[in-house]
Amino acid sequence: MDVFLWVVQILLGAAFVLSGIGKFLPLSERMRQQQAYRDDFTDAQIKAIGALEVLGGIGVVLPWATGIAPVLTPLAAAGLGLIMIGAALVHRRRKEAFTVNLVLLAMAVVVVAGRI
């Protein structure tokens, strides 16, 4: 079970760190069309979400890996789960697919349940 949790944690952390970093980069026209939800938010809000994603992605792996404040790992996973609930609601309101959000939410729930 521990190996499974590590795999989920690393995948979840990598997904959020990469997604968060992507929110700080300028968008090409093609990417802007794929991420039309960004029109609902200000640039500052997008960057804040990106910062939370990067911090959560790091927090879901690093505390447990180092043994320093490992209680932060399930808390970070819970925070990422809340971000995914919000993201799913935004995509649902826009009538867009939100399957990826639900998969990431499920991964976050697995980490929370497994690391408490």
From TrEMBL:
InterPro entries membership: DoxX (IPR032808)
Keyword annotations of the record: Membrane, Transmembrane, Transmembrane helix
Main location: membrane
Any one GO cellular component localisation term in the record: membrane
Top-rank taxon, per record: Bacteria
Keyword Chaperone included in the entry's annotation: no
Listed transmembrane segments: 6-25, 46-65, 71-90, 97-114
UniProt keyword tRNA processing, yes or no: no
Membrane topology annotation: Multi-pass membrane protein
Compartments where found: Membrane
Species of provenance: Nonomuraea polychroma
Stated name of the protein: MYXO-CTERM domain-containing protein
